[in-house]
């Protein structure tokens, strides 16, 4: 098996030829990032490979004599004369950062710009229309155990929905009600000082050019939007750097609601990107036909083109050449201690009537569809009442649709969906949907509400209906207009529909209670002891990127066999960062809320916390302290024993790490991965039809009892993937609790009350 890493072929670089700048005074914590990064950027702009480490700036000479000293915001940095002695950790960290700096300089020199993190994109798009997209790539540097340098490279695509392009498209296509569509729409606006974009809402559309529209400038005097952006030095530089040319006659002027400002601010359309959901019905059907979905063979070719651009001539650190081999790294190459390959088998699943479902061959998925047809669900409900909220024009057709849905529930042995109420919506608008759902939500007790969404304003109506029903804690299932019409037509022809199977499963799953399941694991996930009581938690934190404050947390909990016990948003926290006491509260609340709902009250042996996204080094100590504090509290409440454990695992999706198999299999790799060390693994758990499978990285960040390695965590993670009751045909790449928290985050960010719901 090969991976998209390129490794230096020469002798490892044992001693870095670095020099150091140090500040002549202590930099306060509030100024630290701004000053250190400013100093680093100054050297980088002079083409020195540069990085910061602690309070010092390390760089490598490039033939140009460095300054003896320089100044950033009144802080003086002085070039140190003495030799620099680095320990192994410092050496490898600084080497990693310096190679990253070289890649950045190389990318900039050949016409790429920085997107975010280690992603770069071409400055010029290769498509301009309703949207635009750009050649792009991800990179990541790794210093291997033997001291050689490896560089991961992965080609990708960057998408932009420019507001100016959208307005042109709308005008050319006679798009009606443009102002209504744009009002409250989310856009990305640039922060010229932080070199990144943030999200805001449009609160007004002023049909006045950016030359004519006046507002109060920074000096308190009236100025036009055009003048502000073309004369203010930081804004002028942003326009130049991003190749944006403002026309004084551009209109409309858009007023944005930005969280850090008390009043809306005006923006030119040309500097904004509109945020459009891919399900939005206004998007033309052919818009995404040119999207890059690279097959493994094509992706390998693109990766080698990228190698030629970035690494083909090698990288030079002072007088030292870093020369990379032009071949994908082979994991069988024993000359480098890189890790061990692991294969992932699907678990055996339990269905109703004692039926089990196992894969028919190694590394293949169980046939969940046929198992449901044969055995039905584990927990059987005789009858489930269903109410519909739908446009008035469709009320007479809903009985036909409902009967067709029931045909599928019968095939799946889900009992009967009993038609309870039909609530007509007499005006197709999100506000009316919310009023109807709020008004009749109190009548829908112990039922599932199925909401038929209209053709237009799809996402706004979705959130409006969810918000209205959420006030009465009504569980609901939403159906898009297009899907509904296809199913209505299919009902006249007879037969069965894949979509209707999934709708039936979703509705049934929402009706189940704590600990009930449609199907679950036959034996505990990852081969854990069946006599132990383990909780698997999916956990996510929503951050406000503008203020860098945490806003809310979401969690879902399942048991040894993958039966959902709890899901909800948990206590809101608005601190500057996550601290141990807050994490302790979250761990404690989740454990006690779940424990108190379980009848047997068996003490918890282990809590496995799967965090969605990375846990940064600065956060690890807080997670460690939070876990220890939570365990102490749970001991006092007699919910845990002294031997009980809390394990924290970071699950990082959409990694740039690609795996490639043999040519005779189309270079594809499924259900396998790498154990890098006892704490880190990279796995492939998805099987795309066209493109190349992306990887997931698992990091065992902390465990109170150091009694488990990452390999068993990987097997637990893989087993818990096979529990998505909403799909008969393809299971997700991530585990069920994490799958749930993503949906929770989407809803609670819109201020929607989410009822307790095992799915």
Describe the structure.
By secondary structure, this protein is α+β, with helices and mostly antiparallel strands. The protein contains 17 helices and 39 strands. The relative contact order is 0.09.
User: How far is it from the N-terminal to the C-terminal residue, by CA?
Assistant: 37 Å
Give the uncertain stretches in residue-range form.
545-550
Helical content stands at 25-40%
Radius of gyration: 28 Å
Strand content: 25-35%
User: Globular, elongated, flat, extended or rod-shaped: what is the shape?
Assistant: globular
**Total number of β-strand segments?**
39
Helix/strand-derived category reads alpha+beta
Major sheet summary line? 9 strands, mixed
Order of strands across the biggest sheet? 23-37-38-39-35-34-31-32-33
Q: Count of DSSP helices?
A: 17
Q: Average pLDDT, to the nearest integer? A: 85
List keywords for this structure.
759 residues; alpha+beta; nine-stranded mixed β-sheet; six-stranded antiparallel β-sheet; 17 helices
Brief description of this entry?
With 759 residues, this protein is an alpha+beta fold. The protein is built from 17 helices and 39 strands.
Write the layout of secondary structure elements.
Blueprint: E1 2-3, E2 5-7, E3 18-23, H1 29-45, E4 50-53, E5 56-60, E6 69-72, E7 75-79, H2 88-109, E8 112-114, E9 119-122, E10 127-128, E11 132-143, E12 149-160, H3 163-172, H4 178-182, E13 186-191, E14 196-206, E15 214-216, E16 222-224, H5 225-231, H6 233-241, E17 253-257, E18 265-267, E19 273-274, H7 296-310, E20 315-317, E21 320-322, E22 329-330, E23 340-343, E24 349-350, E25 356-357, H8 368-375, E26 383-391, H9 395-411, E27 416-425, H10 430-440, E28 448-452, H11 458-470, E29 475-479, H12 481-493, H13 498-511, E30 520-521, E31 534-544, E32 549-558, E33 564-570, H14 580-597, E34 604-612, H15 617-636, E35 640-655, E36 659-660, E37 672-677, E38 680-684, E39 695-703, H16 710-719, H17 736-748
Parallel strand pairs: 26-27, 26-28, 28-29, 31-34, 34-35
Antiparallel strand pairs: 1-22, 1-36, 2-12, 3-5, 3-7, 4-5, 6-7, 8-9, 9-11, 10-11, 11-12, 13-14, 13-19, 14-17, 15-16, 17-18, 20-21, 23-37, 24-25, 24-30, 31-32, 32-33, 35-39, 37-38, 38-39
């Amino acid at each position: 098996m090969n991976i998209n890493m390129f490794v230096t072929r020469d002798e490892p670089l044992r001693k870095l030829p670095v020099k150091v700048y140090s500040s002549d005074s202590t930099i306060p914590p509030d100024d630290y990032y701004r000053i250190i990064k400013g100093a680093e950027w100054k050297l980088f702009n002079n083409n020195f490979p540069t990085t910061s480490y602690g309070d010092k700036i390390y760089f490598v000479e490039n033939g140009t004599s460095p300054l003896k000293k320089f100044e950033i915001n009144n802080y003086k940095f002085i070039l140190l004369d003495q030799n620099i002695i680095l320990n192994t950790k410092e050496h490898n960290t600084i080497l990693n950062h310096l190679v990253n700096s070289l890649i950045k300089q190389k990318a900039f020199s050949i016409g790429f710009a920085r997107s975010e993190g280690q992603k770069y994109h071409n400055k010029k798009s290769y498509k301009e229309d309703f949207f635009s997209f750009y050649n792009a790539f991800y990179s990541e540097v790794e210093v291997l155990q033997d001291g050689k340098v490896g560089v991961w490279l992965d080609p990708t695509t960057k998408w932009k929905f420019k507001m100016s392009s959208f307005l042109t498209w709308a005008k050319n296509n006679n798009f009606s009600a443009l102002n209504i569509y744009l009002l409250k729409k989310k856009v990305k606006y640039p922060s010229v000082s932080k070199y990144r974009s943030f999200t805001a809402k449009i609160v007004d559309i002023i049909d006045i050019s950016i030359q004519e529209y006046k507002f109060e400038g920074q000096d308190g005097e009236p100025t036009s939007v055009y003048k502000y952006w073309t004369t203010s030095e930081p804004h002028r530089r942003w326009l130049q750097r991003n190749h944006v040319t403002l026309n004084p006659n551009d209109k409309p002027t858009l007023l944005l609601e930005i969280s850090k400002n008390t009043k809306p601010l005006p923006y030119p359309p040309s500097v904004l990107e509109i945020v459009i959901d891919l399900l939005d019905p206004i998007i033309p059907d052919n818009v995404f036909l040119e999207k890059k979905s690279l097959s493994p063979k094509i992706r390998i070719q693109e990766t080698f083109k990228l190698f030629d651009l970035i690494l083909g001539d090698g990288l030079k650190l002072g007088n030292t050449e870093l020369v990379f081999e032009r071949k994908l790294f082979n994991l069988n190459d024993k000359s480098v201690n890189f890790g061990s390959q692991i294969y992932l088998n699907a678990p055996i699943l339990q269905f109703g009537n004692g039926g089990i479902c196992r894969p028919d061959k190694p590394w293949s998925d169980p046939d969940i569809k046929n198992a449901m047809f044969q055995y039905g669900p584990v927990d059987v409900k005789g009858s489930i009442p269903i109410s519909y909220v739908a446009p008035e024009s469709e009320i007479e057709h809903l009985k036909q649709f409902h009967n067709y849905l029931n045909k599928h529930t019968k095939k799946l042995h889900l009992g009967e969906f009993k038609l309870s109420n039909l609530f007509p919506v007499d005006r197709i608008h999100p506000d009316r949907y919310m009023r109807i759902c709020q008004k009749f939500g109190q009548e829908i007790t112990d039922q599932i509400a199925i909401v038929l969404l209209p053709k237009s304003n799809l996402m706004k109506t979705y959130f409006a209906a969810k918000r209205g029903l959420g006030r009465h804690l009504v569980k609901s299932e939403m159906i898009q207009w297009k899907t509904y019409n296809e199913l209505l037509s299919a009902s006249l022809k007879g037969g069965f529909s894949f979509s209707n199977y999934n709708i039936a499963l979703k509705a049934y799953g929402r009706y189940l209670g704590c600990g009930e399941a449609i199907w679950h694991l036959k034996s505990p996930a990852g081969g854990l002891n069946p006599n132990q009581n383990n909780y698997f938690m999916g956990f996510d934190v929503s951050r406000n990127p503008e203020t860098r404050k945490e806003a809310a947390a979401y969690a879902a909990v399942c048991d040894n066999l993958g039966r959902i016990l709890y899901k909800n948003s948990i206590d809101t926290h608005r601190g500057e960062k996550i601290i141990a006491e807050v994490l302790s509260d979250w761990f404690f609340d989740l454990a006690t809320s779940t424990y108190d709902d379980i009848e047997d009250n068996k003490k918890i042996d282990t809590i496995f916390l799967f965090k969605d996204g990375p846990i940064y080094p600065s956060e690890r100590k807080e997670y460690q302290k939070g876990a220890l504090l939570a365990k102490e509290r749970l001991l006092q409440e007699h919910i845990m024993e002294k031997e009980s454990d809390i394990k924290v695992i970071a699950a990082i999706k959409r990694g740039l790490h690609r795996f490639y198999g043999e040519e005779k299999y189309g270079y594809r790799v499924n259900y396998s991965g790498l154990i890098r060390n006892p704490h880190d693994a990279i796995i492939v758990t998805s099987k795309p039809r066209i493109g190349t499978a992306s990887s997931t990285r698992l990091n065992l960040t902390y465990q109170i009892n150091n009694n488990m390695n990452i390999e068993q965590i990987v097997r637990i993670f893989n087993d818990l993937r096979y529990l998505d009751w909403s799909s008969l045909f393809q299971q997700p790449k991530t585990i069920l609790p994490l799958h749930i928290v993503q949906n929770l985050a989407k809803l609670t960010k819109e201020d929607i009350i989410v009822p307790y719901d095992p799915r």
